[in-house]
From TrEMBL:
NCBIfam families: succ_dehyd_anc. It is a multi-pass membrane protein. Its main location: membrane. Membrane-anchoring subunit of succinate dehydrogenase (SDH). Part of an enzyme complex containing four subunits: a flavoprotein, an iron-sulfur protein, plus two membrane-anchoring proteins, SdhC and SdhD. Its cofactor is heme. It holds the Pfam family Sdh_cyt. This is Succinate dehydrogenase hydrophobic membrane anchor subunit. The chain crosses the membrane at residues 24-48, 54-77, 98-119.
Length: 132
């Protein structure tokens, strides 16, 4: 008697043999974003409209900084995989490859810029606290 789950029966059945992994990645990241985005909106909303010192003070604390980093990272990886899936459905040949590389590159560039800005904000916050 075989005890196979539905996932095990589906693995390797797609054209590229990665459809199940892709589906699970998108499911997990969408659930993670369902929890991250509302909390991020609340944290970001409280910082919005404050003077620079208030924004720096908000994002120099660990929870808002880590939450922002996680939201950007998970969101951009979700975007890249979703864009890849859409491109694979509608483009062919070298255009497909170029567009997938472009979408992935945009994702990593946004992650790098956001993490750099966040690191700079937190460092300014630490320096600001050390001076006072």
């Amino acid at each position: 008697m075989r005890y196979l789950t539905a996932r095990k029966r589906a693995e390797g059945k797609g054209a590229s043999h990665t459809g199940t992994e892709h589906h699970w990645f998108m499911t997990v990241t969408s659930v993670a974003l369902a929890f991250l985005i509302p909390v991020f909106v609340i944290v970001f909303g409280r910082a919005l409209g404050q003077p620079a010192e208030g924004v720096i003070a908000t994002f120099s604390h660990p929870f808002p900084a880590i939450l922002t980093a996680l939201t950007v990272f998970v969101g951009m990886r979700h975007f890249a995989k979703g864009a890849q899936m859409m491109i694979e459905d509608y483009a062919q040949g070298s255009t497909r490859k170029a567009l997938i590389i472009l979408a992935s590159s945009i994702s990593y560039i946004v992650i790098a810029v956001a993490l750099y800005a966040l690191a700079k904000l937190t460092m300014v916050g630490f320096l600001f606290e050390a001076m006072h």
